[in-house]
UniProtKB/TrEMBL annotation:
Keyword terms, alphabetized: Molybdenum cofactor biosynthesis
Gene Ontology process terms (BP): Mo-molybdopterin cofactor biosynthetic process
Protein name from the UniProt record: Molybdenum cofactor biosynthesis protein B
Organism: Cellvibrio japonicus (strain Ueda107)
Any one Gene Ontology cellular component term annotated for this protein: cytosol
Known role: May be involved in the biosynthesis of molybdopterin.
Pathway annotation from the record: Cofactor biosynthesis; molybdopterin biosynthesis
Gene (name only): moaB1
Family indicated by similarity: Belongs to the MoaB/Mog family.
The keyword Ubl conjugation belongs to this UniProt entry's keyword annotation: no
Ranges for domain MoaB/Mog: 13-157
Amino acid sequence: MSSQKDFEPLNICVLTVSDTRTLATDTSGQQLQDLLEAAGHRLHGRTLVVDDIYQIRAVTSQWIVDPLAQVVLITGGTGFAGRDSTVEAMTPLFDKTVVGFGELFRQVSYEEIGTSTIQSRAIAGLSNRTLIFCLPGSTGACTTAWEKIIREQLDARHRPCNFVGQLRIPS
């Protein structure tokens, strides 16, 4: 009997945090949607909110309690600008923080943007068995995070470990 696992498509939500973009001009959110669908996952929801702690929390909280949503990808609001508030919005909602995600993201990002990576406050955490990744707003950063970290961690076949077993099973 083989211990090889099968690919399990996940229900993934995409939230763009931006004061300037619309869904029509949201290249980062669209890139994340394209990447997750190309990997075999399902887009469960996609929306855009202005950079406001309470709007970010409101949308994300709806997905955290949605029995079908398993992963949330948030793009934008993770820098040091005055209105960047995604980290502050999400941190109190985490049951557990995936500390290594931010560290690894900055490490792989360094190869692309050098020391500017220190201004990234990318984080991830688990809330109600929903995995949440908070990414910078640039399309390049979203691609880097997906291709070099997230894609493998959302694939049940990835060894020695991945997050699929930590996520809720949709009812």
